[in-house]
Amino acid sequence: WCRSGEEFRMLRTCPVLYSKAGPPTGGWQPLSFDGGAFHLKGTGELMRALLVLRLCAWPPLVTHGLAIQAWSQRLLGSRFSGALLRASIYGQFVAGETAEEVRGCVQQLQTLSLRPLLAVPTEEEPDSAVKTGEAWYEENLSAMLRCVDLSRSLLETPGPNGNILMQLKVTALTSTRLCKELTSWVRRPGASLELSPERLAEAMDSGQDLQVSCLSTEQNQHLRASLSRLQQVAQHAQAQHVRLLVDAEYTSLNPALSLLVAALALRWNRSREGGPWVWNTYQAYLKDTYERLRRDAEAADRAGLAFGVKLVRGAYLDKERDVAQLQGTKDPTQPDYEATSQSYRRCLELMLTHVSHRGPMCHLMVASHNEESVHQATKRMWELGIPPDGPVCFGQLLGMCDHVSLALGQAGYAVYKSIPYGSLEEVIPYLIRRAQENQSVLRGARREWELLSQELRRRLLGRGLRVPS
Predict the structure, then answer these.
(1) pLDDT tens column, 257-272
(2) Would 6 be classed as within a structural domain?
(3) Is 364 exposed, middle or buried (0-12, 13-18, 19+ CB in 10 A)?
(4) How much is the pTM?
(5) 179 and 257 in contact (C-beta within 8 Å)?
(6) Using CA atoms, how far apart are residues 105 and 116, in angstroms rounded to an integer?
(7) Reduced DSSP (H G I as helix, E B as strand, rest coil) percent helix, strand, coil of the chain, to 5
(8) Where is 293: in which H helix or E strand?
(9) Range of 150's domain?
């Protein structure tokens, strides 16, 4: 693919765009994550957050969440049990059920200088004929398309970079069984070009009758339907000016997910399309992440493609280790927390350097609840001359890490809160599974509890008054 002269000049001038200005005059001042921004939140919100975060850090509650939910429904009745959930866990982590409830939540976030990152809560159940059949994936397609429309309607006027974002879970549109089969094939030495991103992208674009020899007739049919669904979501998202952040999942699925994302990127991340519409997620807790990220960034640069990345530490550490031990395979994860943090720092430095060189052709979400990582990102952005509201943004979960989110938002950085929405029946199982995957994050919320307690004491008892800096 060849760049036009105008596009080539744009790419050549992007490094100058950020680096020539250099750091602003004066020294870099780190943000303060001391909970000072909690004054923006109501007392009721703070009390609920303190209670819910403490409960979620109790392992038995998270481990047996689904059983406890079923028990409470039998004991208290669906109505009272539902009211308790809405007043606690659902109210803390979910935007609401209707479009109006979601809109109200987002408007409240906007008053705090925060932005929405909507997520459709879908959970495939491999043993369920209902939740793995083609009709279920088609229903999920409709839900994803509605999410695109809702994301667009929440922010009628996009920002200067047009960054309306939403999450996309590929296994809501294609089965995990197919992803595992594709992953197995991709990992073989000299894997067939039948499964190249170029061939899949061509099939997506043309709707041609794709046949892959390593798949059965039924699997080929499902692959074609899955490619069609992914293409429909990407096409609609681009038309509505919504960028898709594809969720990472387990290592048994990620090579297949990356293959599908690469195919979408070939079609939708061309520079003439207006930047990266499809972003992939990279998990720093995996040993090979830095090299994969480096190769993918360089490949996108060579091909003249825009490149979008959501950088996370990763949520499946315990499960990945258990699976590796059970199967007798090599553990794909970093050996400890410090090694994961070092991996995250390296990946962050790599991506910020790419952003400084490629400008609007490279976008990054620093999706982290870790204060040190956020400090590193803001300091390097300052040193590289990357503006706070430029192609780098930050992401945290709704209802968590607000002391970091609020401080970033008040300082002018682009901050997104990952927001699931839907009915209690849809969302509570989703939340419980996410809590089980993120137990280390929940257990690490001790500092947030302390800051919440400090602010509540200040309000309710007049103690713990903050001394102005």
Answers:
(1) 999 999 999 999 997 7
(2) no
(3) buried
(4) 0.88
(5) yes
(6) 9
(7) 60, 10, 30
(8) helix 289-303
(9) 122-160+168-241+260-268
